Amino acid sequence: MLGVLDTRAAEARPPAAAGHADAASRAGPAALIDGRAIAAALRRRLAAQVARLDVERGVAATLAVVLVGDEAASQIYVREKIRAAEEVGLRWVRHQLPARSAMGDLLALVRRLNADDVVDGILVQLPLPPSIDAGTVLAAIDPDKDVDGLHAVNVGRLAAGLPGLVPCTARGCEILIRSVRPQPAGAHAVIIGRSQLIGRPLAQLLLRADCTVTVAHSKSSDLAALCRRAEILVAAAGRAGLVRGDWVRPGAVVIDAGINRVAAADGTGRLVGDVAFAEASERAAAITPVPGGVGPMTVACLLENTVLAACRRRGIDPTPL
């Protein structure tokens, strides 16, 4: 595939689906697509690549993480990403700016990181404080270091089928799909959601894989009917339980990219996806859980982008690593 590390080992069927020659060839009860296990396999492969880059090429692949303010959730996400980077052997640097920082200060930091030849990937943790325009900041990042894959240059490269850095959650969804349907060519894929993080880039990835792709959204008419035609169904709408069981075509692969916190009966919160999991499992061939499906893949693919950026910046072909 253009512009993607050779992760065929990580994209082989997940351990939870072992014993099924092709999970997409049968109807439910669905095989569970274990995102944690698949992400762990990808991280092991990346760790081997990082080690070989260091030993054979003298390259210490490095990720720069920028955090503005002290918002609790962002602090947790940054710690998780740094811990994952350490696990695969990536070097990292963390820059924290006060919440009241001027946008000029953040842009100056981004320019310094762009110019720093040691830094291979730049991640600016979102959301940013209201006083800072995220679009302006993301546009200032060197596209070759844009490990979130959100710069307009990388968006254009993806649309044109050129090598680039792909948004992490979309890339993770693609890997999960291929774990149970390694050759998706010809399949009809329906994606609910058209965000820059998931829906739009995943549509491009699946088009590149020769799928027939329908992108549905809040203004689509008869969404249920669209979903019933999908051999690959991706829910990324941000609405808890939107996709009911009878929306799922028997034998479909269902990828639930929704993360929604809902109140439990005891007053605590729990995470659920956009798909009514129990209902959909009775009809799908394979399905991702929430949590434990798409979520772990996002961080693993951030690391993949960092390694890919480190190679590309130095003219190294990552495939043999």
Describe this structure in words.
This protein is an alpha/beta fold. It has helices at residues 8-11, 35-57, 72-88, 103-115, 134-140, 152-160, 168-180, 199-208, 223-228, 277-281, 294-313, and strands at residues 31-32, 62-68, 91-97, 121-124, 188-192, 212-216, 232-235, 253-256, 260-263, 269-272, 286-287. The chain folds into 2 domains: 8-34 and 167-295, Rossmann fold; 62-162, Leucine Dehydrogenase, chain A, domain 1 (Rossmann fold, 3-Layer(aba) Sandwich). The chain has 11 helices and 11 strands. A 6-stranded parallel sheet has the order 1-11-8-7-5-6. Strand 2 (62-68), helix 3 (72-88) and strand 3 (91-97) form a beta-alpha-beta unit. It starts with 7 loop residues before the first helix and ends in an 8-residue tail after the last helix. Residues 1-21 have low confidence and may be disordered.
The best one-word shape is: globular
Q: How many distinct folded domains?
A: 2
- Spatial order of strands in the largest sheet: 1-11-8-7-5-6
Distance between the termini: 16 Å
Number of helices: 11
> What is the CATH homology-level superfamily of the largest domain?
NAD(P)-binding Rossmann-like Domain
Helix content range? 25-40%
Beta-strand level of the residues, as a percent range?
5-15%
